[in-house]
Amino acid sequence: MADERDPELPGLLLRTERDVFVPLLREAGDGDFELRTACPGWTVRDVLAHCGAALTRVVEGRFEPGVFSPEANDRDIAERADWTNTRVVDELERGMTEAGAVIAAAGGAMDGIALGEWVHAGDVREAFGAEGAYAGPGLAPALDLLAVVSRKRSPVPLTARLTGAGGELRLGPEDGGRERGRYAGDGATLIRLYAGRPLTGTRYELAGAREGELNLFG
Questions:
Q1: Which of 60, 77, 101, 185 is deepest in the core (most CB within 10 A)?
Q2: CA-to-CA distance for 11 and 138, rounded, in angstroms?
């Protein structure tokens, strides 16, 4: 897993997820869009509306003051309240297709958006009861991107030894003033830790760091 930022990685992650996630959404019934997710107060439809709105902002370069705040996210969702579910998915598909090039050119400032979108896809899969909600074809690029994003956002240096993977994944700052923590477990659970998602039913070892301080998304 490379130490340097790959500008194409966010777009690769979004397109990889698009190809498996959008067909799942096209097959879902209207009732599935009303299921509750791990995001407090948000249904599946709310998560998808938020994701589509965020990626549309990236594609169109619309970043007014307060963008991506909880209040702005709620406004984006409310603006799509009268959209059909199909239209919500259409916007999301467009964003997952077109946002990568913009994120690549931003020099790393928007890499976290691509990672957050992938995590939200996991939120939806989990609401659907799908196995391996935070895994699948996008897991490998998501872990690589997590390592990059964590170097800027996380104060906790951590070395992760992932089940079934050779080598180690280094997360957080390289020049921090604290000893590196250690994680042992699968990649999907590592994503849950850094995304602040429920850990019920998971198995992992964590030393030298606390669960709460790894959360990158608040």
A1: 77
A2: 11
